[in-house]
Every structure is written in structure tokens, then in C-alpha cells.
């Protein structure tokens, strides 16, 4: 394994076509929007998709979705407790700084998402709380233009439970609503910090796995809210600096990506947009189309 010796930045451009990329549970599960009407997909939702894809590729993941779990454990705590050495450290009545560092190293070595994104180990009944800072940071995805959201009322063809007063009549739970973004081009950015990578053991090979995962972010992610093909990765940009600190700030690198609407009519596809990248001297840039 090769240690990560230089800073990495990345950007992902993707489209949403008649889908709900990230519903807001506090707003009737409508697609998320900011104050100005631009669509949003939270960093947490993006990390969930990355974890799922990495799990598909055989990586060991601590924070697994219950419906996609690849083991018998039904919670994060159960998965952590299955590692005897880690369980003993977390339940010690008095822990030293070395104990915390040991627990961090064990968890990072076992689970890809811990050494990439970090994790807080604080459970009921444990004596020690550990916070792992991961080297991979990801921004919230935001649409280039404000998005239009369509809503439709839907009905179930069958009752969930029998109508006790009149079995032949539908119950109130057969009515509902479904929301979608008609079309939107979204962008999110991320960075990999080599100093934090040293602490968790995140390697250059781990970074390459992340890059490949970004290209197929929406594979095996279909649902009734996101039909297969309704969300597509269009471009992945990957920059490798020549040092741990980097020649440029992450903000400057991220600003180098320009996604602009080139037609005045209502955008219906990625063809309505032009994607360009400003060249930064001395910075190695790679560009990939989504797979």
C-alpha cells in the first residue's frame, strides 16, 4: 500500500431527470432546495451512495443501510462489538490516550468508510467516546439553476388495513403525494487531506477506489423516487497536487469548474450546458465521463 503524499481535490457534475434526488423529511419529502430555489443533495446522502457502491465492490463498511447489510449485525454498535479488541477498549472504565489511538487505528484498518469519512464511537453503555476525523470531505451538491418541482397525487389500489366501518371503501392512507425535480444539473466538490490520511491509514490506493466509485455513483441506486437512468454522472474531475498542503486552496480549485447554460430555452438535458475548466499551472488534472 502507498501512503497518500499529496492533496487531492475532485468535482462531480451529475443530472437529475424526473427524479427526487434527496427528499426532505421535514417538508413532505419534497426535493431539497435552498433559499434561492436551487436544488440540493446533502453531503450525507452522497456519502450514503458512496458507501453503498464501495460495499458493492467488496469493501468493508461500518455504516451499512439495514436493507443492504452484508452481515448479521443490525446496528453500528453491534458491528463494532463484533470486534473483540475494539469492544474491550470502548468499555474500559479508564482509557488512556494510547487506548483511543489504538481504537482509532483498529476501526480505520477494518472499515473503509471510517478511514475515509471518519466516525464518532459513542454508544450507550460504553465508557470511552472516540471521534475519528476522516481525510475525505464532501460538499453538499447544488444545482446550477433553480429547479422546478412537480408534485402529483397518488392512490394505492389496495388498503393497507381493512376499513372496519365499510370494508368496501378505501381508507385515508391510500392517498399520498409524490414529488420530483423535472430536470437539473448539479455539482458537488470534495477534497482528501493527506495529514488526516496518515492518521487513519487512508492510502493512495483507497483514493483511487474512491475515484472509480464517483464515476458509478448511481449504480444500484434505483428506487421509485429515483428510477434507473434518471440520475447520471456526467463528469468527474480529479486534481492531484504536488505536496501535502497543495499548490492551491481547495476553494480555488473548485472555482475552476464552470458549468453554464448556453441556451436560453428551458434546459432539458446536459446538452443545454457547457462545462469548462480553468487550467491551473502545475496542477495535474484528470477528467472522466460517467460510466
From TrEMBL:
NCBIfam families linked: cas_Csd2, cas_CT1132
Organism: Virgibacillus natechei
Stretches the record annotates as Disordered: 157-177
Name of the protein: CRISPR-associated protein Csd2
Compositionally biased intervals (Polar residues): 157-175
InterPro entries hit by this protein: Cas7_Csh2/Csh2, CRISPR-assoc_prot_Cas7/Csd2
The organism's place on the tree of life at top rank: Bacteria
Amino acid at each position: 500500500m502507498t501512503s497518500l503524499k499529496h492533496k487531492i481535490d475532485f468535482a462531480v457534475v451529475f443530472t437529475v431527470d424526473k427524479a427526487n434526488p434527496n427528499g426532505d423529511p421535514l417538508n413532505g419529502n419534497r426535493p431539497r432546495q435552498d433559499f434561492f430555489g436551487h436544488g440540493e443533495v446533502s453531503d450525507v446522502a452522497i456519502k450514503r451512495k458512496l458507501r453503498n457502491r464501495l460495499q458493492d465492490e467488496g469493501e468493508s463498511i461500518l455504516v451499512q443501510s439495514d436493507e443492504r447489510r452484508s452481515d448479521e449485525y443490525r446496528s453500528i454498535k453491534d458491528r463494532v462489538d463484533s470486534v473483540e479488541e475494539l469492544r474491550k477498549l470502548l468499555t474500559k472504565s479508564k482509557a488512556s490516550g494510547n487506548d483511543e489511538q489504538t481504537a482509532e487505528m483498529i476501526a480505520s484498518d477494518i472499515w473503509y468508510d471510517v478511514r475515509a469519512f471518519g466516525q464518532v464511537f459513542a454508544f450507550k453503555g460504553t465508557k470511552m467516546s472516540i471521534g475519528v476525523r476522516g481525510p475525505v470531505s464532501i460538499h453538499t451538491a447544488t444545482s446550477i439553476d433553480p429547479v422546478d418541482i412537480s408534485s402529483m397525487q397518488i392512490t394505492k389500489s389496495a388498503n393497507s388495513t381493512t376499513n372496519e366501518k365499510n370494508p368496501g371503501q378505501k381508507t385515508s392512507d391510500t392517498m399520498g403525494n409524490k414529488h420530483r425535480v423535472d430536470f437539473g444539473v448539479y455539482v458537488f466538490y470534495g477534497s482528501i487531506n493527506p495529514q488526516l490520511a496518515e492518521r487513519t491509514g487512508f492510502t493512495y490506493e483507497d483514493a483511487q477506489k474512491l475515484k472509480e466509485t464517483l464515476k458509478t455513483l448511481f449504480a444500484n441506486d434505483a428506487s421509485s423516487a429515483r428510477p434507473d437512468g434518471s440520475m447520471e454522472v456526467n463528469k468527474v474531475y480529479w486534481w492531484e497536487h504536488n505536496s501535502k498542503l497543495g499548490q492551491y486552496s481547495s476553494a480555488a480549485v473548485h472555482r475552476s469548474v464552470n458549468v453554464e447554460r448556453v441556451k436560453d430555452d428551458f434546459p432539458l438535458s446536459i446538452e443545454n450546458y457547457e462545462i469548462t475548466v480553468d487550467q491551473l499551472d502545475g496542477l495535474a488534472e484528470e477528467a472522466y465521463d460517467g460510466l
